[in-house]
Amino acid sequence: MTWQVHRLAPALAEGAPDADTATWIRAMMAAFLGPRPGPEEMATIAASFAGQRLRGVYETADTSPVATLRSWDTAMTVPGGEVAADAISSIGVRATHRRRGLLRALLVDDLAEAVRAGTPVAALTSTQGSLYERFGFGLAAWTRSLTLDTRAARFRDAAPTGRLRMLDPSGFAPVAGPIQDRARRRHPGSMDRSAPSWHALITGGVYDSSPRSAVAWADATGRPAGYVVYGVAESWWGTGSATLAVHDLQATTPESYRELWRHLASLDLVGEVGWANASLDEPLPWLLTDHRAVSSGGPRDMLWLRVLDVPAALGARRYPVTDRIVLRVHDPDRHASGCWALDTTDQVTPAVTATTDTPDVEMDAAALGSLYLGGVDPRVLARAGRLSEHSPGAAGRLARLFAAPGVPWNGIRF
Ligand SMILES: CC(C)(COP(=O)(O)OP(=O)(O)OC[C@H]1O[C@@H](n2cnc3c(N)ncnc32)[C@H](O)[C@@H]1OP(=O)(O)O)[C@@H](O)C(=O)NCCC(=O)NCCS
């Protein structure tokens, strides 16, 4: 059977997805073992794809795709700034068509388009740990889970401050959007959220229809500085003590962070609050008189990053020290291949140029992706044989150059 990659723009006609979008959604949901969406869910999913790119692999005799991929343009925080990124998701292959190169065909096509568009990096999250390195993606950000035992939690700072306000779904995004936009600057790897993704966050989308609550915290001047979205993961009916799940928590000030957690810890009928997608540097245990009220799991891999344009990607971030270092990068797909001089003498505008100079360090594109946000120490990669030093101390120089002011994290599930 012959097949071809086709691109389509998701489309709604009178509130329902058009035929191509509908077959694409069904194929993607089936590949992820998801539920068969009804008309209302189909409309919600299709609306959440507005402005995004859908790709499918189609066999000549079939109008339903046998493989899917979705991508969109996003802004990603990098140390000292942000970079345009190709966010990739929904890669799924029909169970009968695996291991025939369909994932490869879709991804290669998508990355080629991102390169043509001048997008410096691509990013994705993965269901499995060994899939994407072969395509030049390096693990760049992690997440971990936190569980707060609310009955044991005592806050060092006893008196609540500010004001909490419940947000209804229609008023949620206008309040939460500006907060997330400020909060995400602290974590390299964080992305902006599209309007439909706000809707999915507050409603639970198609995978989770249990009710969600959104609470914003405002300081004494009335300015909202943080929000949390949570829902019931396990009711109190059986045990007398419910478990809540945090779906997102963004705080722009230490005070808003503390008061949002105080709110979660103070809810009646609740014994535990879990957050599956916390950053590695959550201050929560330090707010409490007994850090054992918080337990954690992980870390787990979260964000995989692929550099497509070395000068644009390295030029988009800032570096804490001045140096000039030459990196040789190997890339089987050639996007990042070459010998590159990174010169940070001008800290505002780092210069990244192709060079014939002898390299100080050598690595593959995936290793460069791992280093880019500053979450991995190049000396560790050197010890693992993933990076070669050609001048003494080069990995240490690279570590000082790439050090980031914040811990890489991507708070958005995509
Ligand atoms: C994972 C999945 C997308 C792979 O699709 P596929 O079409 O079988 O992959 P391809 O045939 O294009 O394989 C591409 C490469 O990845 C490798 N690969 C594929 N699936 C793999 C797996 N599960 N684990 C490790 N390697 C895998 C192949 O061996 C091949 O390697 P090579 O090119 O170096 O020889 C598919 O099995 C699937 O839909 N799984 C369920 C949904 C899912 O988990 N999607 C991934 C979302 S991040």
From TrEMBL:
Annotated acetyl-CoA binding lies at I91, G92, V93, R99, R100, G101, L102, L103, R104
Q: So where's the catalytic machinery, residue-wise?
A: Y132 (proton donor), F414 (proton acceptor)
Q: What is this protein called?
A: GNAT family N-acetyltransferase
Molecular function (GO) terms for this protein are: acyltransferase activity
Q: Which family does it belong to?
A: Belongs to the acetyltransferase Eis family.
Please indicate which superkingdom the organism of origin belongs to: Bacteria
Instruction: Note the subunit structure.
Output: Homohexamer; trimer of dimers.
Q: So what EC number does this one have?
A: 2.3.1.-
Q: Which organism is it from?
A: Actinomycetospora chibensis
